[in-house]
Design brief:
This protein has 20 helices and five strands. The protein is mainly alpha-helical. The protein is globular, with a radius of gyration of 23 Å.
Length: about 375
């Protein structure tokens, strides 16, 4: 007992520079490794004070997990240790069951833990992202829509993400397909489609899941595309000269291209959030129309569609009226910056065509974005060329 007290005192002294904070999802708020390291120490103390404190365990886990991520530590041994302790202290809690699924890499074999967590606390939005993705993988549309409605009604989803998702969807051709990537883009579109019935004619394909053989096969079947299928292991064996992320990007590009080129009566788009992974391989077939790229094997003039989206369809309120400063790790900062390519091309077009009114409108947006993401010098140079 004496040694336990001494250890707690020592940890408290080391961690005294910070106060306890609820650890926000790294998707919504990212901080540096020092913050997560200190918070991990503080939350560990809380778990020692009360081993049944599920909130303390959850924040302790998150702080360690995000600390690993920000320090580029890819081993999860410390997380497994935490999970083993939770199994002893809070085995029937929402936190333990949800984190068992999450810590297992969202693997289907841990799905019972996720479903148990949802049964324990169906109104807890923390599990909603994992539940929606799980439903996408297994094709459980009923549960997915139930969760999306709960999620929207929880009023916990950032409004600016919904604005951005609206812009991604609203300018697409009728009955089209959009291949979307990243939490900021995927869930927001799903929420709008399920609750506001926004562009329900558009089919959403999750780029991050196209790596998964079962999801890719399911997608081909849903689109009624004759299966030209090779699993990941076969693909890797045929491309032994590349590995790691390069191999994954090539596989993804091949699968995206096969889907897009096989669809003859529908337009296929790719979100700008996922473009980096496939652009090297598909750049000659991708045309910018705003914050999305349209796949086309034939050249066409995409400027008119960019104009239409800017002048008639896109909503820019979340950029114009953002009154909160964006820190360097903010996901909103990243998404705001993703409008730059589109707006820069439009600015040059309006400038050359002497459309002064729209040129001024674009210029104002560019200046706001430049200030938010710290590239005022570059945008000033563009405007004054």
């Amino acid at each position: 007992m004496k040694y336990t007290i001494i250890i707690l005192i020592m940890i408290a002294i080391v961690a005294k520079s910070q106060k306890l904070e609820q650890i926000q999802s790294i998707v919504n708020q990212t901080k540096d490794s020092v913050f997560y390291k200190e918070q991990a120490k503080l939350w560990e103390i809380e778990t020692k004070k009360s081993s049944k404190n599920a909130n303390a365990w959850f924040n302790y886990y998150r702080a360690v997990k995000y600390g690993n991520y920000t320090r580029h530590i890819y081993s999860n041994k410390n997380l497994i240790t935490i999970m083993d302790k939770m199994k002893t202290d809070i085995p029937n809690s929402f936190v333990y069951n949800y984190l068992m699924y999450y810590n297992g890499g969202n693997n289907k074999k841990y799905a019972n833990y996720l479903l148990k967590a949802y049964k324990i606390e169906p109104e807890n939005p923390i599990a909603y992202p994992s539940l929606v993705t799980y439903c996408d993988i297994v094709g459980n549309t009923k549960l997915k829509n139930e969760v999306l409605i709960r999620w929207y009604n929880s009023n916990t989803y950032p409004v600016w993400k919904l604005y951005n998702a609206y812009n991604s969807l609203i300018g697409l051709d009728k009955n089209s397909i959009i291949i979307s990537n990243g939490d900021n883009n995927v869930y927001a579109k799903q929420l709008l489609q399920a609750t506001k019935k926004t562009r329900t004619d558009v089919k959403l394909i999750l780029m991050s899941l196209l790596y998964i053989d079962n999801y890719y096969q399911k997608t081909l079947k849903e689109l009624k595309i004759s299966a030209k299928f090779e699993n990941f292991n076969q693909f890797a064996q045929q491309n032994t000269k590349i590995n790691g992320q390069e191999l994954m990007n090539l596989l993804l590009a091949k699968r995206v291209e096969y889907i897009a080129s096989s669809i003859k009566n529908k337009s296929v788009y790719i979100d700008n959030s996922g473009i980096e992974q496939v652009e090297e391989y598909l750049k000659d077939k991708l045309y910018l129309e705003g914050i999305v790229y349209k796949f086309s094997e034939k050249e066409y003039d995409n400027t008119a569609r960019m104009q239409q989206n800017f002048e008639q369809k896109y909503l820019f309120d979340f950029i114009k009226f953002n009154y909160k400063p964006l820190n360097k790790y903010s996901s909103q900062k990243y998404v705001t910056g993703s409008y730059l390519t589109f707006l820069t091309e439009l600015y040059n077009f309006y400038k050359l065509s002497y459309d002064i009114n729209n040129k001024i409108k674009v210029e104002k947006l560019l200046k706001i974005i430049a200030k938010n993401i710290g590239i005022e010098t570059e945008i000033h140079k563009l405007i004054n060329e």
